[in-house]
């Protein structure tokens, strides 16, 4: 193959990988929403639908060993890190086969093997932790990078800025990925935030920041590569503000009456990251309709198997209450 | 150089940190002004350690308690053993979220897939004029949180041995240092000396009454016990060393023997550690008690500044003696 042909083929493979990874998250979340509606998932359940391009593009920009930490809208991040859909879904149903044996729930799962460090429920509190992951990398002298995700709501929490300062003064390898989905719970960013361009939040810490179209996985990937390389080269932290949108409410219990149906519909119809990529893949000949249909079926089967496992896996034994509190 | 015949409490802390840093590259220290260029810690507990182990491992931080503890938790979940100094215990209120919601719970919430081998050191204590925001004993707050361990020492050798155990422990441990004791002298421990967590020490054997205490009041209680002995009251003195989880067996065995108990702590009495220990004694030994369990603590007030007020706030030897005598009927 010629050099150009090789590049085109690599690009096609990448586009297909993006599509597969985003579709898995979409279908997984849709099924989680169904199971919640059926009463099989209780407690909190924050769906990632609409934001898939962010985590998929960022993950593609990383190398093995790079770490991920995020807040409570975390199912997509876990799947992108390569964690098993069945184990994640079984945690949502609180079963013993879940990643945390039913002791953590939707917001609290971990996988050292896949370098996923949670899954945290206190808004903004994962940001110092992600900074600590980066500290450990720098201390050990490895070249790993910490991807520390948080939302536009968390951007108004104080501990984020203690972390920014510490990361900048110590040149820690951390990419702060701000998933700006426009709403902090039910409050639109314009109502809660004086400077709504969150990529500027690093200015007074000398942390470079960039605004990215978080509905375009290729844009995310390109920005992610640049940011990750900046950190890996020892230049300190980097901020990426991903302009994105969640289609569902803050959590499953939120009817999202603070925005119009038309607004959501417009995003779904004109900016959907998966539909956008599908069109591009077909136009570029990276895959044909039949291949995409087969992929759709494969992912549906994976998600169905996960949902099945999540319902069949036994409830945790009551004695689990007394384990893993101390070493 | 000959080994010293006595060391101070802060030298005990320093020895533990030095040994831990030398033994394990995963151990590092974070804290405000802890490196030598910034003074080696406001209480000098880390003096000389950055010169010996480097400022990458003994690292002065911004005044950012949430970031200090949060970063320490983040490093700990990758397998490191951070020791974070939070200058005063009251400043833990600033980073309570990282301690309670993260450090204490990550092992459980992950189904055992992660752990937080973190040590937090903090100084505190009344009697030295630091006022209301730098003197509180808040150990009960942390003892109330499943997943946290809470440790304090009553002498320099214990400070060294307990802190070393805390650093080697796989759970998040809060190590409380009483600022009034930093200069206190005591016998030096051997290199490698460790005191196991969760095990109390019987400081004085006795048959009439058990006095349970920890930290700075241990010395006060020993002095009171000595006085009481002259009056014919034989007190057994238990130094808990680890406040949470506390050595129930040591406490219950002793009280089963004496039938009387007094709990003494510097923290204010109401809703304190003494209430839990008293309750456990009543639950397990009610039928064997010769009198109700008594508690001695500081007064239910913010810690005042003025020396006479501060002394009035603190528990006293007279109060300890009176409580013991009350149990004797």
State the main characteristics.
heterodimer, A: 327 residues, alpha/beta, Rossmann fold, five-stranded parallel β-sheet, 11 helices, 7 strands, globular, B: 329 residues, 2 domains, five-stranded mixed β-sheet
Please provide a written account of the structure.
- The complex is a heterodimer of chains A (327) and B (329).
- Chain A is of the alpha/beta class and 327 residues long.
- Chain A has a single domain, classed as Rossmann fold (3-Layer(aba) Sandwich).
- Chain A has 11 helices and 7 strands.
- Chain A has helices spanning 3-37, 52-60, 75-80, 85-92, 126-140, 158-169, 189-192, 217-232, 261-271, 273-284, 289-312; strands spanning 67-69, 146-151, 174-180, 183-184, 187-188, 209-213, 238-243.
- Chain A has a 5-stranded parallel β-sheet with strand order 1-2-3-7-6, sandwiched between helices. Chain A has a two-stranded antiparallel ribbon with strand order 4-5.
- In chain A, helix 2 packs across helix 8 (217-232) and helix 5 packs parallel to helix 6 (158-169).
- Chain A is globular, with a radius of gyration of 19 Å.
- Chain A starts with a helix and ends in a 15-residue tail after the last helix.
- The model of chain A has no long low-confidence stretch (mean pLDDT 96).
- Chain B is α/β, with parallel strands linked by helices and 329 residues long.
- Chain B has 12 helices and 14 strands.
- Chain B has helices spanning 9-23, 49-53, 65-76, 96-103, 106-109, 139-143, 156-168, 217-230, 248-258, 273-285, 307-313, 317-327; strands spanning 7-8, 27-31, 58-60, 81-88, 119-124, 149-152, 173-178, 185-186, 201-204, 209-213, 235-239, 242-244, 261-268, 294-298.
- In chain B, strands 3-2-4-5-7-6-12 form a 7-stranded mixed β-sheet, with helices on both faces. In chain B, strands 9-11-10-13-14 form a 5-stranded mixed β-sheet, sandwiched between helices. A two-stranded antiparallel sheet of chain B has the order 1-8.
- The termini of chain B are far apart.
- At the A-B interface, helix 5 and helix 6 of A face helix 3, helix 4 and helix 5 of B.
